[in-house]
Design a protein that fits this description.
The protein is of the alpha/beta class. 51% of the residues lie in helices and 10% in strands. The chain is built from 19 helices and ten strands. The strands form two sheets. Strands 3-2-4-1-5 form a five-stranded parallel beta sheet, with helices on both faces. The chain has a five-stranded mixed beta sheet with strand order 6-7-10-8-9. The longest helix has 25 residues.
Length: 487
């Protein structure tokens, strides 16, 4: 009898629980082998393996290592070395070698590079008994997620319009971290199922609310979480499908006729409606207006995709790459002491991008959109200049500049000069607002709203007296204005 009928590395799946799940191929190999290496002996099938088999497990590595990465690295190196022996090695793992298994795919990849033959002996994974237990067909689009990946995420990395099965929810601590990530999108009371030890004699399903999953006393190494879809209308992908349908031959005639240019006014209108909702600090209106603005974004991406210019995937890839590259202090370990350091580094990175794109001769201000409202544009020019040190050393210099511009406006003797000086005054006032961390555009919009409200009060007061505004003297209107200011 020899250790392995196959010279090289045999990656063998033990199934989810009990020898009844072993394939005939696996049992045939195990009956003729002398030795087997187990990722863990903490598995129901192990006690039912052929009695003559010499079993060596890697459980001691889990006990000694500081994290799973180092455990997996140790096992991979060991199996590769064993596979170089003349008798090869049989390495067995729970379930299937390529389902929720970190070591086998890497062993197979490294073995191919090193010229070591590999045989895969399929096994029933935990998925089959799990889906059977909860009565679910995984098709057409159930997401399969590793809990250990999910704990480090800030939002779920899968669409909420599809169900998800989250594996390796092996402890209450992991369950607690997973639920926090999920609750960034799903309601606390979202109904879920915990599936424990699927495919074993101890199989158990718990139905509970999402916020309760870390309170289960059954959570362990064989626990998975089934997360039903939040709803068919809740994911970005589902929304993209809606917009693509609108543009399709069987879609909406109006939407099919739209172009980038015809949608310009709609994009501007929706942007200003969102700004208005923000000014009102109305969460419901902000939510609705964000949706309307998103509609414009997805429409433009869909139109571009139809013409072969770019796709939504290109849009997302571009902004994803840009954000990561411009935040090395978040994603690459660069240490920056404060916000000023972040902004200065931002400008250095953008300058490097311009050089890389062959645009080194462009001005620092070229990236400011010409279509921006004038106050926003002025503030953005000033911010960019300040990032490279072109700024007043203290606010008093800005105040003095405002006073200087007022005097120059007073001294202007012709319409052209007066207009130019007035523009300089506005620019200086925007700079003062920037120094005081005031959003000039927003505050002017707020002032406009205050004026409108107070003027409406004057109109209402005049109507209450049975008079029109033209019948009121300036003194009477001023008195009503002061009353309106007092609220």
């Amino acid at each position: 009898m020899q250790t392995n009928m196959f010279t090289g590395i045999t990656l063998l799946g033990l199934g989810p629980g009990g020898a009844k799940y072993l394939t005939q191929e696996a049992w045939h190999i195990l009956e003729r082998a002398e030795e087997i290496y187990l990722r863990t002996e903490q598995h129901p099938t192990v006690s039912e393996l052929p009695a003559h088999l010499r079993q060596i497990s890697f459980d001691h590595v889990y006990e000694q290592a500081q994290n799973f990465e180092s455990v997996y690295a140790h096992i991979i190196e060991k199996v590769l070395r064993l596979g170089q022996r003349s008798e090869g090695v049989i390495y067995a793992v729970p379930g299937h070698p390529f389902v929720a298994e970190a070591t086998c795919p890497e062993i197979a990849r490294r073995a191919q590079l090193e010229g070591i033959p590999v045989m895969i002996v399929d096994g029933v994974s935990f998925l089959e008994p799990t889906f059977r237990t909860i009565g679910l067909d995984a098709f057409p689009h159930c997401a399969l997620v590793d809990a250990l990946e999910l704990v480090s995420a800030h939002v779920p990395p899968f669409p909420s319009s599809a169900p998800a099965l989250i594996a390796q929810l092996y402890s209450s601590a992991v369950a607690a971290d997973v639920k926090l990530t999920l609750m960034a999108v799903y309601p606390d009371e979202h109904p879920v199922k915990l599936i424990h030890a699927a495919g074993t004699d101890n199989e158990l399903v718990e139905s509970l609310a999402l916020f309760e999953i870390d309170r289960s006393s059954y959570v362990g190494s064989l626990t998975s979480l089934y997360l039903p879809a939040l709803g068919p209308t809740t994911s970005f992908e589902a929304f993209q499908e809606i917009i693509a349908h609108l543009r399709a031959p069987d879609g909406c005639p109006w939407d099919r006729e739209q172009t980038h240019q015809s949608l310009r006014s709609h994009l501007m209108e929706e942007s200003y409606e969102l700004l208005s909702a923000l000014d009102e600090n109305n969460p419901n209106a902000i939510c609705e207006e964000l949706g309307d603005l998103l509609l414009q974004v997805v429409l433009h991406a869909q139109i571009a995709s139809e013409y072969g210019d770019f796709s939504m995937a290109d849009v997302l890839h571009g902004i994803h790459t840009k954000i990561v590259n411009r935040h090395p202090h978040v994603f690459s370990g660069l240490e920056l002491k404060d916000v000023n350091g972040v902004l200065e580094n931002w400008e250095r990175l953008k300058a490097a991008e311009r050089i890389a794109n062959g645009k080194s001769e462009e001005s620092l201000l070229d990236g400011v959109a010409k279509a921006l409202p004038a106050l926003i544009q002025a503030e953005e020019y000033q911010k960019r200049a300040a990032r490279v040190g072109f700024d007043w050393p203290e606010v008093q210099g800005v105040i003095d500049k405002v006073c200087e511009e007022i005097e120059e406006l007073r001294a202007a003797t012709d319409e052209k000069t007066r207009s130019a000086e007035f523009g300089d005054l506005l620019f200086a006032i925007v700079n003062l607002a920037r120094w005081y961390s005031i959003d000039a555009e927003s505050e002017l919009r707020t002032a406009n709203a205050r004026f409108r409200g107070r003027f409406s009060t004057i109109e209402q007061a005049a109507r209450a007296q049975g008079r029109s505004l033209v019948d009121l003297s300036l003194e009477e209107m001023d008195a009503l204005w002061e009353m309106a200011k007092r609220g």
